[in-house]
């Protein structure tokens, strides 16, 4: 029980350069899949991903479906071994044996799944779910002690009265309550890092906010480092400090949330932000809001045979020749912002980039 | 049962009504009630639903999971299966060509079959599941086309399928593909093209874009809007994403526990939601650009439709409930303030006959 | 939707109830058989009543007698013991093997799965009855134990396939991953998270195994490859067949044992229906009467408002 | 490209069946060697029984010499065995010395193929047909009668049905002959009376097998149809206003049928087993009876030969089912 | 019936005799390699290939001439001179000579794998065209019956000489018999009568064999689809004969042997004669014959059939033993045995015997009768141990049994008792082909040896009486019920059949010469 004594870190944006709790450097994960024919092909699900999770900070990972968000989360959770790259927990590189990390790793890093019903075994009571981690990681024995700890956990996720919930089966709980149990279970191991893989997308809109507020509380009160994976860039903005955008297995842009959302530097980020519904956008003609040129946008690329160069180039309105051949380097744009786009590359040998598209809308 | 539109009158002077509505309404739904008959208590998944759909209009239906949206859609299209049973109400369809109005609830299977796809088509949530996995796309188009136009040759049907696919940005030679050979977005667009194959007057869409991501969603909806502009069909669009509807729909119906609790234009609902539930729903979507405030959503859980709460079904979760809400079921009435179609709400706060002392503050 | 829960939901349907009752009845018969036949005078499966040879059912011999003056009812009761013994023992062995092969295959996947799956597919495509016949033929004059062992040993493959598929789908469900994230070891995941979800399937498999065992033993006995010292339904039919009971119209000799086999098998099938319906709620047919009643009401109301 | 993929799938399946065939061959080789008993003493005993004469020990020794020395080293034996198989030499029948097993098997095979082949197809067609109807009208009176009834029918042991059929239709009513493959008074040949006789003699065994086998298909198909009917694509087909027949056939039944092909192996195994028993009841001159006889007379080479042929035929039938599946399902999924 | 019975079709039914063969499976195998060690050969090969002699079961199972016209032993009994019948030809027209006989007889000597008839001579040698000699190592008066074995047929040397008998299936058989092969189909074999058969002219031109099952054959007989079949038909008198007593003939011809309980004298407790006697005394033979529905066919204790061996049997020993519990108990007491809790106990050793039987003969129920009897009379619990044919023989040969049910009998008194020779005894666990009961007795050996060295009928009868007494006293086996040749005939087409009351030969298909004699006597009926 160390987390509770740590004071909440300061407001977003003012992070000191401390050591990240969990850091993934240049992590790549390929899956070998066999088609029905038996031919092997490699799915490049995550390529060269780098991410830092700091205490008390929330990083949001947004991107379209199939962009590798879940894979990255599972890499960080120790489910998969990276094909290459390194994951470092509190300065110690993580080792994997036969596809599994040591149990100790799970004590520090916990993953929360998208579907709160699916991630609770319908045959076990809430109590069982909470007692297992207590027994496994803290050697808690004895009924009284277990009871006390279970009650504590339930109260932390605001499932009160705790006694009433402890003996329920998952199907007796609503979606939001289930997700709270899932979070409580993750908290039971007293992790330092919580990875949420779309933890609210299966919940009813009306209760999503409760969950976001709960996560926010855990971050501030317990100083957890949080990775929040989502489709919904608006909720990312609501909860997180930093945003990282993924596209086709690669990270394309990152930085403090307000800046990234208000002023996207990568054309994909821009497309994403523009496509997201925002009732607050103000009065606008519907036809103008939905003016996407469907034929021109094309399809997301195959991860088995990704486009050469920048993976976004086939859909990018600003694609240049160089985009088609060379992968763009990561360009630091100051204020912790960065983008992986030739438009922002500072390589002098390259042609002058087109005017920053992001500026046009401002 | 309050019906603003009484089918009897429509029947009695069908001719004049049709003439009057020719440019106006395509569908009059009134008092529609659907129940799931299971062993125990029936689940009333649609209760007394009444609305009018105008020609060429996009009507959005939003609500939480389990509020009866899909039930409404299948009832509208008469596609519900046991144990769902329509127990009351009427769905009167007014054909564009001025033909006699048809009540879909009582129409014979033959009449219905003739109306299907030529007048009334549907797009389902998951195109992967909605397309027959073992038939080529073209064949699934040809199936529909040739059923309703017996003179069409097979080759012509396939050619038409290719054209239709082209209208949603899929190259025509893809007609020879099987569904699994297309990406998710393409499949969804293909099933929209399929829905438009016979030039329907009304397309109902049950969460057609939940399975695709935002970029693709916008792309698909843009296409729907474009096609609607040229073909002039009306759309009933069901989703739980109110923020999307606010941008997309002309009018929006909010469902709660099988009932329409509020019905108005997108503007009205965004700027001035009358029902506390609508307000809560609207405030459940954090803004993308506006300054962030702490949002709370709607505490509590939706009711069990097997045992709905007495009175207003929302009252257990309602922050503004007052005495009597747990006893009196509010009816959907058009609020005086509204313009054109009428901004209707089913809430005792807005019932002129009921005046709670606590409403002085108005909406927060 | 609680697919994994066997308990209450299962016993609710009439099919399951009828099925379980019939099986229970025969199990009871098998257990109490010796006591029954010993305590009721004249009900000795092996006694020869020389005054009643090949007699049709009568007051003294309710189901008639065999060519050897033996009481068919007594033999049928005794036969339940032999048949169900083979059925249950072979089902236990078959089910155990199926779990042993199917569960790790489905859970671990990868190479483990490839090999185990190959193994079970192999046994699936092999014509098992001829194989059992041959092996039993080699093991000349086998007792019921050996017969049951052989049947069980060759009869697990279908079950293993089911278990594998189910284990695979359960293992990929988030809650297993979630418990893994908590650091649960494999054996706990296998036996506490995955296996309980398969109980329905295992029960169904076990029942199918029982039917399979009873039927196969009957088939083997019919071909003369069983322990004819023991009385089972199969050996009864074989004895009848040997004595041309069919030709001689001694239906009371071969009909009861065959009917018993069919009854047990039907009962097990009915129970399996129940399990299927539990696992796949779509199969739960709506009771027609209910729908019709409601539709009638609907028609009334709509007609009322319409005309 | 798609064609290539389909072929690829088939090739993989073919690979599996080749492996399975290899396993069957090894099993076939090992079984008699792992099991007690040897053909030579069997033959002597049989002779003694049949002739009622004393067979001197020298004869046993000499017969040993003919049927292979059981003390030879296993690897050598296996190589020899493979060599024999390559020449389609399944050894010499003990009971019918010196007639080769292959000759006897080939003589019996057509009858079984005829019987099992036609009954499998018939049972499949009947079962799936009725299954679709029952599944489409799940909960209807038809379904509530047909389904439990079928459950009962498919629970009745094959040979028992055969016995009853023999009794009722053979003895009591005399409509059908009691044994054999055709009328002994007819000359074998490709002529109408002979073929009619083959049909007449095969009708009862075939009916028995169909009777016992179609239930499995029916139940499987019913459940699949019930599940399939609830699929969105069937809903959409109805929404398209297609005629009911078209919806049932092209959408519901067509898709519901697919798992039947993956279940084919298991079903076929049952049918083959049942057919073997049925053949013995009707004394039908097929593989099943041959196996039964070789078991009784402990004709080990014959047992082995029959098993090998039955296995290979089963594998082939499965390969056929797989091919059909590939034609029917463009997705060529791995699992059903 | 709806079955096309095929009147007047191929072959001319009127001129055809049809045999429904029930023990050969559903198909026949085209295999006329008549000397090969095959169990199943082409059906009725004995109508094509004939032996030298025949056994006459109507008359004490003595040996009578067939292809051999006469024969005599030298005084030592080691040299047999055989004179062949003149004028016998093979179906290809070649005459049958001593060369063929010598060739045929020497085949099993030169190639022991074809020694399936249990021959005991050393060599056959030609004397002249119609005479040859057969040499024995020891006096062999008693063994001349081996030349009556149809498994020792006369084959044409000119055809067989150059064949590899390990692979040759003799597709076009040439023999001395009355028929030639016309057509061989797996499901029907058609033989055509020769017009130059030495034994006379047959009344039918065609003989057809069809495979059928025991049950089906019964129906076919009832319908008249077949003329003859064989196998027991429990209650056949009512179910068959009674329906048309004139034409439906169900005949039982005693074959001289019996179904017996054989004791394993090679190990306790049945190495003790008291135990053997006690159990033999308490078998309810009547119950067995009652359920067999063959009343009155209980066997006497000698193992010789009272009808066949009327001239040979000791009349005092002829009657079957009744159940005599008291005597049996006394026997047990004499032997020092007690029965405790179902087990036989002596000297602190306790035994629970089993009874081995062949499942394929559906013998379990008869075993039950015996078991019940022993339990009821002596309190001994005997366990049933059924085995399929193969396992049954295995267990029997290895001595892996306590009591077994086995057929006993043979041609002649020597034939019945010869197997009891202690020469055949091997230890339990080793395979014995004869004397599986492992009974050895010096006196028996002496009698058997004496039988072999004389052909004097009076002396043989004397020896036979001694042997009977010994067997009754020592009980190496205990006969239960008589064995028969069961014949079922539908005499609608052919008349002139022998009857069990009056026969010189048995109309049993498979007993080559007897069948031929029967056929020669038949006449087509009118209509
Ligand atoms: N175990 C696996 N084997 C093979 N391919 C995989 C595996 N897991 C993921 N992939 C592939 O990797 C890619 C990235 O998948 P991932 O689930 O990480 O995306 P995601 O961003 O989480 O998508 P979503 O938003 O739909 O959840 C996809 O193309 C997916 O098909
Ligand atoms: N087959 C059924 N039997 C019984 N109740 C049902 C059945 N199908 C749906 N319901 C109930 O009807 C109600 C409405 O369901 P419906 O599917 O229309 O909701 P929805 O608004 O479409 O929800 P979602 O957003 O989850 O799709 C729910 O309470 C549900 O539990
Ligand atoms: Mg994901
Ligand atoms: Mg829905």
Automatic annotation (TrEMBL), chain A:
<feature type="domain" description="ABC transporter">
    <location>
        <begin position="22"/>
        <end position="273"/>
    </location>
</feature>
<dbReference type="InterPro" id="IPR003439">
    <property type="entry name" value="ABC_transporter-like_ATP-bd"/>
</dbReference>
<dbReference type="InterPro" id="IPR050319">
    <property type="entry name" value="ABC_transp_ATP-bind"/>
</dbReference>
<dbReference type="Pfam" id="PF00005">
    <property type="entry name" value="ABC_tran"/>
</dbReference>
<dbReference type="InterPro" id="IPR003593">
    <property type="entry name" value="AAA+_ATPase"/>
</dbReference>
<dbReference type="InterPro" id="IPR027417">
    <property type="entry name" value="P-loop_NTPase"/>
</dbReference>
<keyword id="KW-0813">Transport</keyword>
<dbReference type="InterPro" id="IPR013563">
    <property type="entry name" value="Oligopep_ABC_C"/>
</dbReference>
<protein>
    <submittedName>
        <fullName>ABC transporter ATP-binding protein</fullName>
    </submittedName>
</protein>
<keyword id="KW-0547">Nucleotide-binding</keyword>
<dbReference type="Pfam" id="PF08352">
    <property type="entry name" value="oligo_HPY"/>
</dbReference>
<dbReference type="GO" id="GO:0005524">
    <property type="term" value="F:ATP binding"/>
</dbReference>
UniProtKB/TrEMBL annotation, chain B:
<dbReference type="InterPro" id="IPR003439">
    <property type="entry name" value="ABC_transporter-like_ATP-bd"/>
</dbReference>
<keyword id="KW-0813">Transport</keyword>
<keyword id="KW-0067">ATP-binding</keyword>
<dbReference type="Pfam" id="PF08352">
    <property type="entry name" value="oligo_HPY"/>
</dbReference>
<dbReference type="GO" id="GO:0005524">
    <property type="term" value="F:ATP binding"/>
</dbReference>
<protein>
    <submittedName>
        <fullName>ABC transporter ATP-binding protein</fullName>
    </submittedName>
</protein>
<dbReference type="InterPro" id="IPR027417">
    <property type="entry name" value="P-loop_NTPase"/>
</dbReference>
<dbReference type="Pfam" id="PF00005">
    <property type="entry name" value="ABC_tran"/>
</dbReference>
<keyword id="KW-0547">Nucleotide-binding</keyword>
<dbReference type="InterPro" id="IPR017871">
    <property type="entry name" value="ABC_transporter-like_CS"/>
</dbReference>
<feature type="region of interest" description="Disordered">
    <location>
        <begin position="1"/>
        <end position="20"/>
    </location>
</feature>
<feature type="domain" description="ABC transporter">
    <location>
        <begin position="27"/>
        <end position="282"/>
    </location>
</feature>
From TrEMBL, chain C:
<feature type="transmembrane region" description="Helical">
    <location>
        <begin position="115"/>
        <end position="138"/>
    </location>
</feature>
<feature type="transmembrane region" description="Helical">
    <location>
        <begin position="20"/>
        <end position="40"/>
    </location>
</feature>
<keyword id="KW-0812">Transmembrane</keyword>
<keyword id="KW-1133">Transmembrane helix</keyword>
<keyword id="KW-0813">Transport</keyword>
<keyword id="KW-0472">Membrane</keyword>
<feature type="domain" description="ABC transmembrane type-1">
    <location>
        <begin position="80"/>
        <end position="272"/>
    </location>
</feature>
<dbReference type="InterPro" id="IPR035906">
    <property type="entry name" value="MetI-like_sf"/>
</dbReference>
<comment type="similarity">
    <text>Belongs to the binding-protein-dependent transport system permease family.</text>
</comment>
<dbReference type="InterPro" id="IPR050366">
    <property type="entry name" value="BP-dependent_transpt_permease"/>
</dbReference>
<feature type="transmembrane region" description="Helical">
    <location>
        <begin position="251"/>
        <end position="275"/>
    </location>
</feature>
<feature type="transmembrane region" description="Helical">
    <location>
        <begin position="84"/>
        <end position="103"/>
    </location>
</feature>
UniProtKB/TrEMBL annotation, chain D:
<dbReference type="Pfam" id="PF00528">
    <property type="entry name" value="BPD_transp_1"/>
</dbReference>
<dbReference type="InterPro" id="IPR000515">
    <property type="entry name" value="MetI-like"/>
</dbReference>
<feature type="transmembrane region" description="Helical">
    <location>
        <begin position="157"/>
        <end position="178"/>
    </location>
</feature>
<feature type="transmembrane region" description="Helical">
    <location>
        <begin position="14"/>
        <end position="31"/>
    </location>
</feature>
<feature type="transmembrane region" description="Helical">
    <location>
        <begin position="302"/>
        <end position="328"/>
    </location>
</feature>
<keyword id="KW-0813">Transport</keyword>
<comment type="similarity">
    <text>Belongs to the binding-protein-dependent transport system permease family.</text>
</comment>
<feature type="transmembrane region" description="Helical">
    <location>
        <begin position="198"/>
        <end position="220"/>
    </location>
</feature>
<dbReference type="InterPro" id="IPR035906">
    <property type="entry name" value="MetI-like_sf"/>
</dbReference>
<feature type="transmembrane region" description="Helical">
    <location>
        <begin position="256"/>
        <end position="282"/>
    </location>
</feature>
<keyword id="KW-0812">Transmembrane</keyword>
<feature type="transmembrane region" description="Helical">
    <location>
        <begin position="111"/>
        <end position="136"/>
    </location>
</feature>
